[in-house]
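Hi support team,

I submitted a single chain yesterday and got back a structure, but I'm not sure I'm reading the token output correctly. Could someone confirm the output below corresponds to the sequence I sent? I've pasted both exactly as they appear in my results page.

Thanks,
R.
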Amino acid sequence: MMRRHTTLLTGCTALALALGATACGGDPVSAGGGDKELGGQTVTVAGVWSGSEQKNFQKVLDAFSEKTGAKTQFVSTGDNVSTVVGSKIEGGNAPDVVMVPQVGVLQQFAKKGWLRPLSPTAQQTITAGYAPVWKKYGSVDGTLYGLYFKAAHKSTVWYSPEALTQAGVKPPKTYDELLKAGHTVSDSGLAAFSVGGQDGWTLTDWFENVYLSQAGPEKYDALAAHKLKWTDPTVVKALTTLGKLFKDKQLVAGGQKEALNTDFPGSVEKVFGPKPEAGMVYEGDFVAGVAHDQYGKSIGKDADFFPFPAVEGGNAPVVSGGDAAVVLKDGKNAKAGMKLLEYLATPEAAAVWAKAGGFLSPNKKLDLASYGDDVTRATAESLVGAGDSVRFDMSDQAPAAFGGTKGAGEWKLLQDFLRDPSDPKGTAAKLESAAAKAYQD
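Hi R., thanks for writing in. Yes, this is the structure output for that exact sequence:
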């Protein structure tokens, strides 16, 4: 998915900070070394990133090479990470490190016996720098396998300051205020929301924010693990709440039919493109990247965000996603791969990409001054400040057949619900039927 200034520390101090070891006084450095102990070795890394994300991650890999002497090679897998990595393992050509974009895939890799547990050095650095919830999402059966290097903040509503100012609307604090503000924006001549319903994943994100705030984190965790059925009254209630927005033609740009023909980039265009049709678009922090890169918007001036508001007296939700670095057992240079992972766990590594832009780190030891603008700094602060109340994207925790497949499972059923939100109970029953099958398989 899409998405300052700090001077990188150098010399002895940086090494000690970055590697969690005494890098001064002649002691050996366990995690990579100023003596270029990995010189002549190559670490291969696979991940979904391409374009600017791949380019910026390469800067992090280059910093690792500079520190350790290791060469790095990045392979872009496209969206289907598990299939690509599985075929590489079978072909005897496994990468050393994989950047895994979904909790469900990380669990799948661990259960297949593909992963190495993280080294004590990496574990210590993660324990010191991350809220425990990130260790939970990187662990399977109590063993820590994954380091969440890059995160997404999926509880941000992006808006045109001009549109809201014209309507005389201030960023709302509650879901009811959100709908009320939407009607005011609509009365001023623009639709309230642009909804990218052609991409089913955007609708799962809408549902997850409403559900987390309304039902609370315990129920959210239970539903994510399918220990709670989708027919539960809390699910029906959340769908009813969401349906109020979906069926209101004043609120959704072009109505339901147009929303179903609008993909995620198109939903951003309707707010920040040359011919605005809506004042607001809900999605993650990566909206800013599209608004800036595609439409030249100045983030904080021409495009801004407010937190997804609290629903019916609940807490404001913080839903996240992210990419976890894991080390494969079958990699040709898994030992050097673990050194890379130890480096990625440090604030120094996160600062490289933070400075480049289009990045959030869950690492609370990363200086917020590393981010290049106030808006990114605010989203990062919100993410880190949420601590253990952060919840990982629910559909990313589910088996792909239910939570991550185009035209099937949750994606399709929520698209059907957007088309006709009149029967929340019936939709919940269909979601339960699809979930039961996927979790059984």
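A quick pointer for reading it: The longest strand covers residues 319-328. Let us know if anything else looks off.

Best,
Support desk
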